[in-house]
Amino acid sequence: MDKPTNFLAKFLLFGCLLTTVLWLVFFVFLPPDYRDAFSIIYQKQAYLEKTQSPKVILLGGSNVLYGIDSALLEQRLGRPVINIALQVGIPLTMQMNQIEAQLKPGDILLMSVEYDSYVLPDGSNSSLARLLEVYPKGVGWLDPVNLKALPDILKIMFQEKYNRVRSSTDYKWPSLAEIVNPGSQLPEALIQLFSPRGDILAHLDLPGKPISAAPFFAYTQFNPRILDIITDIGQRAALKGATALLTFPSARQTNCEASQDTFAKLYDRLKRDLTLPIVGTPNRYCFPDIYFFDTSYHLLREGRRVRTLQMVDDLQPYLNSR
Amino acid sequence: MGKEFFVSFTSIYFLPFMVAVYLVFLISKNSYRWAILLLASIIFYLGLALPYLLIILICVVLINYFWALWIDASQSPQKRKVLLISGIFINILIFFGTRYAGLLSQALHFTFAALQWVPVAIIPGLVTIGVSFYIFQALAYLINIYLEIDSPEKHLGYFALYMSFFPKLLQGPIERPGSLLTQLHQPFIFNAEQARSGLYLFAWGLFKKVMIADRLAIIVNFYYNDVIHHQGLGLIFATYLFAFQIYFDFSGYSDMAIGIARLFNIELTQNFKQPYLAITVTEFWRRWHISFSSWLQDYVFRPLQLSLRHWKTKGAIVALLITFLVSGIWHGASWNFVVWGLLFGIFMALEILSTPIRKKINRKYPPEKSWWVRAWQIGITFNLVSFAWIFFRANNFSDAVYIIGHLFSGIRLVECAKLTVKTWILTPVLTGTLPLSAFGAQAPQVCLATLQDFPLFPGKFSTENLAILLISVFIYLISGYIKPISSWPSGLRWAGYLCFSLWLLFGIWMIETLGQPFQEFLYFRF
């Protein structure tokens, strides 16, 4: 009589062999394109791991990536600052999972969530696919909701990879160093685009582009799940002895004016349902249109400076209280 | 379909489902294994997200279980007959009720409205995946009990499993009680070779479905979903391709079902035996959807033929026509299927009538000795079958009529050939001039005009699709000429399995990348 365990072991071995070959094909011989801005996550993660506490960690979407001068913030607050944010499509839960191990007593966690996240709090599969392609280890940071979407995320990732390979004319074999230590050879041009603390710098002096004057979202679309997510992050931070704060994204004046009703209702709801401190109000972070680059969230150099200084003032009470 | 694909064989969720079921099955005691399989079958059916299907299944199971016991317990032949007929009637009522209630209510609604009577409410049409398959199984069970071919199953659980065993639940094969029930009762003894061949067969079925049938479907759909804008060569090409699409689709599903069942030491009925190599339509039906055709033969054709035996040949022909009419109606409530079924009945009736002539020819040129006779017979049979598929595939009856009316439209092959010979061969030879005159250019123009309406591969059919299709067809063809992979030396076998799996995964990746996900199995709608 045959033993099922032998068969299952062989089946498992075959599965491992198949996975290895697939991994070799998709991640080694068709390596990620580290020119993608998301590759900067390697640098952000390394910086996070080596930064001493108490520190300030910035979470959120591109309003944080584009719109905060971490160096200035660090100088004024007298604490190291790390900008973890990449894009609105990367959910807050994932960012929290990313930084949780490095969260120490006395740290401040500042969440500046785009208004889009109050509608779609779980990010976007295409953003996750982009991130996981350059940083596969990030799969360990996925929330159960995002894990459920993993087949779709992988599908998008492979689609993008295929399209890139198909249109690529400059394929070159990855070096041994890249294979052994992925992300260790980030292109110099990419590194130049970011500050060591993780802010993007490339856009700062570019001319602004015309932007739609639509409201950010209609309050009827509000997804209460974001409240659970923020509360959970707050509790997890508290367990580590850190303080989680919620603030509002930088927003273009014209869009703010179109969103007054939503802002009022949103602020009331957050005040009512959240126990963690809320820094400022939506209107406090509305800035003149001239400060913006390509979306109603992305600040240019002057806007970034003004917002950062405002944030310094707003954060003082929380620094002093500790 | 969408949500209904939750646990279809080609769904990404099927793999974890199957692994979980198999592991639980392996670690369970023999006495509980039927319950594991039954539970898995229920979850599988519920995975279609149509809970009413489970209710219909439970009703059919309970009715047939008790009806069979009742028939068996009855001593009076008359009572047994009445019970059998009533049992058959109830099953047919459920079959028609679920499948045609929507259509019937629609017809009644409009008739009553026209007569200005109280209108009948229109019942929405139901999706009845699997119903026709297990109803046929139930009918076979009742008839076999009545004829005392089989004994009734006393254990409700085993009977429910016989009816609902998940590998064959949605698309068959239609199993006979004597075969499946007996196997379900046998204690499970793990057999590595059996399990390995089951897995391989599953992968092979997936390969046939995804890599070949679904690629062909893109071309077939291009023509058949917009027949009005096509004619001639394009329609002929799509019709031939559909013949292969349906074969690879349905036989792919059957292979997958047989492969999964094999993991549990259950051998389901072989449904296909190289049907397009049949030399007659009768032989084709002995090789195509065998579990269904043999069911029709045993439970419709033979009883009819027996009762009409005094009509001799005429009786056989009438029995054939009725049998294939039943086959058509089983497939669907439309003229397409009725005509499709009747066409096969007519083809086979013609074969009966032409038997003396064909015997004479076969005596003079035995097909087993004359390859060309055999090739001719295979060709004729394939063309007749492909012609009948037009009705099966066309979206409606008027499309089918249009296709048949335009199969040869716009084809100027004869003219093209004549002009080519005249201008490119005869004229240069006779006059000693090169065919570069304006007159000479007519031939290619005519030939090109023939091809104008025939975009061999439509825009959506990318180079990648063509590559996947051609390489997969090549693999399929050579697989018939090489030793089975299971008999290869160990190292080579592992390499073979690995290469095959990689090709399959690569194909699925490419297909997903191209945004052309899996097509619905063609037989899901029956």
Write the SSE topology.
The complex is a heterodimer of chains A (322) and B (526).
Chain A: H1 4-29, H2 41-50, E1 56-60, H3 62-67, H4 70-77, E2 81-83, H5 92-99, E3 108-112, H6 125-134, H7 144-148, H8 150-167, H9 176-180, H10 188-192, H11 225-239, E4 243-247, E5 251-252, H12 253-258, H13 260-273, E6 286-287, H14 301-320
Parallel strand pairs in A: 1-2, 1-3, 3-4, 5-6
Chain B: H1 14-27, H2 30-46, H3 51-73, H4 77-114, H5 131-146, H6 156-164, H7 166-169, H8 177-185, H9 192-224, H10 233-263, H11 281-287, H12 290-307, H13 313-331, H14 335-353, H15 355-364, H16 371-393, H17 397-405, H18 413-431, H19 442-452, H20 463-479, H21 490-513
Structure at a glance:
The complex is a heterodimer of chains A (322) and B (526). Chain A has 14 helices and six strands.
List descriptors.
heterodimer; A: 322 residues; alpha/beta; Rossmann fold; 2 domains; four-stranded parallel β-sheet; two-stranded parallel ribbon; globular; B: 526 residues; mainly alpha; disordered N terminus
Largest sheet of chain A: 4 strands, parallel
Count of separate DSSP helical elements of chain B: 21
Helix content of chain A: 40-55%
Q: Summarize the helix and strand pattern of chain A as letters.
A: HHEHHEHEHHHHHHEEHHEH
| Percent of residues in beta strands of chain B | under 5%
CATH class of the largest domain in chain A: Alpha Beta
Note the gap between the termini of chain A: 70 Å
Q: Report the sheet with the most strands of chain B, covering strand number, pairing sense and barrel closure.
A: none
Which structural class do you get from the secondary structure elements of chain A? alpha/beta
Q: How many extended strands of chain A?
A: 6
Order of helices and strands of chain B: HHHHHHHHHHHHHHHHHHHHH
CATH architecture descriptor of the largest domain in chain A: 3-Layer(aba) Sandwich
Overall mean pLDDT score of chain B? 86
Number of domains of chain A: 2
> Which word captures the global form of chain B?
globular
State the end-to-end distance of chain B: 14 Å
Which regions of chain A are unreliable across 5 or more consecutive residues at pLDDT < 50? none
Strand order of the largest sheet of chain A: 2-1-3-4
Helical run tally of chain A: 14
